Amino acid sequence: MPELPEVEVTRQGLADRLEGGWVRAARLGKPLRWPLGVPVDSLVGRQMGVMQRRGKYLWLPLSAPQAAVGAAAAGEPGGVLLHLGMSGSLNLSASAGAAGPHDHFELDTDRGLLRLTDPRRFGAVVWSDALDADPAARLLARLGPEPFDTSLTGLRLHAMLSQRRTTIKAALLAGDVVVGAGNIYVSEALFRSGIDPRQRCDRLSRPRCERLLQALRATLAQAITLGGSTLRDFKDAHGTSGAFQDQALVYGREGQPCGQCGQAVRRIVQAQRSTYFCPHCQRR
DNA sequence: ATGGGTACCTGTCTGC
DNA sequence: TGCAGACAGGTACCCA
Q1: At what angle do helices A206-225 and A154-161 cross, to 10 degrees?
Q2: Which of the 8 DSSP states describes residue A161?
Q3: Which of A79, A86, A203, A258 is deepest in the core (most CB within 10 A)?
Q4: pLDDT for A194-206, tens place per residue?
């Protein structure tokens, strides 16, 4: 599910509300992608810091435990690195009922109950001593620059892409050239920049890389404003669905007329994933 | 080193 | 109605 906009919308809905709050209890459901790495009770008695995002990961800093607040355990500060996988969402609510079959991580805090719901369980919650310590560091190491990082320019994007022979669709999806765009937003950004998703990275001119970066930023920014996309599962921290899916120009629109030229939008499969594009408006 | 395929897991929808 | 098969927002890992 969640691509950068959905993760960012989630972060925006949680950061202020969680900051400074205390963890009173913690619980795990079914196993996720990786084990937490520490006993879940060791999260109790810690104070939450400002939630941050890197790519599609979220980082919730946690102070060293205070015995007076919760459990007795001593420990060092650290945090949990969260990933929403394909079907995850994080919700903070004052009065949550009993955990459902897809609720796999819960922090009961004085700010409410923070709950990760993830039917497919591709998501993750991993303890790390710091963002730049393993295992967080190892997971984040492969990520490319943030799309809104001002040091990322069309020139730099062009330099990175010129080293690759894969298709532009595959390269953007891989997240090591730029993070954040997944299957929906890659299709949309390529349409908006008029680039054929099958085009080889090393054949893209610098002006086209420039246009691609602009389109990617515009698409992601619009999606964040609209609360992300909800295809089926995604809800923000307040339980609200996104609205970008209604603005998609090609994604999920196979056979429908392209809004620019009227020709039918095509769906092809690249690396086992659907790609939507307009063969007329998008050129190699 | 790069690139492609596989695996993880559950739910929903389609077509026979 | 039942059931098999395809498909779904991601990504670490393995092998060529």
Answers
A1: 110
A2: H
A3: A79
A4: 999 999 999 999 9
